[in-house]
Every structure is written in structure tokens, then in C-alpha cells.
From TrEMBL:
NCBIfam families documented for this protein: sulf_tusB_dsrH
BP terms from Gene Ontology: tRNA wobble position uridine thiolation
Name of the protein this chain belongs to: Sulfur relay protein DsrH
Listed GO CC annotations: sulfurtransferase complex
Length: 97
């Protein structure tokens, strides 16, 4: 049973991203939205944590563009329509509020 983990808070304010990565199953995916896209700033601890383990990583392209964050080639930039499709594809969606 796969889970889509949706993160929307800055990874620099708390440990949500770290906790999420610890709980990931092999079929799970992570979607960075809102301020969570700041995790993709190179040379930061969150960036290194995402890069260090195999993660099915998706990024809302509008949120990355609004924050001038470049989506690395090992993550997939998606729009809201693809977000909905991704949500349907997984058995559960867990929003890290």
C-alpha cells in the first residue's frame, strides 16, 4: 500500500521532512509544495537528505517558480492536475500539517 506524503512547510522551521523521510516505504512518494520547496536549495541539510536516499520526489512547479527554486533533474516538477493524478494513484495521502 503506497502513500503520497505532502509537505508544505519550510524544512528549516521543524523536523517534518526528516520525520517523513524516516517513514517512507519503497512505493511511497513525496510531494513538495508551498514553502517545502525550499528543501531544494543546494548545499543545505534538507537538500542533502533528499539527495542521499532514493525518493520518488515531486515538486509543484508553480511553488518552485514563485520562490525562484530550481527543480533538480532527480525530482519531477508537476502541475496541479498531475498532483490530483498522483493522489489518485496512491492508496493514501498523508499531509504533514
Amino acid at each position: 500500500m503506497s502513500t503520497l506524503h505532502v509537505l508544505s512547510h519550510s524544512p528549516f522551521g521543524d523536523d517534518r521532512l526528516t520525520s517523513c523521510l524516516r517513514l517512507l516505504g519503497s512505493a511511497d512518494a513525496v510531494l513538495l509544495a508551498g514553502d517545502a520547496v525550499y528543501a531544494l536549495q543546494p548545499d543545505t541539510v534538507p537538500f542533502s537528505a533528499l539527495q542521499a536516499r532514493p525518493v520518488n520526489l515531486f515538486v509543484l512547479v508553480e511553488d518552485a517558480q514563485a520562490r525562484a527554486i530550481e527543480v533538480p533533474d532527480w525530482a519531477e516538477a508537476i502541475d496541479y492536475r498531475a498532483f490530483v493524478e498522483l493522489s489518485v494513484r496512491h492508496a493514501k495521502v498523508n499531509s504533514w500539517l
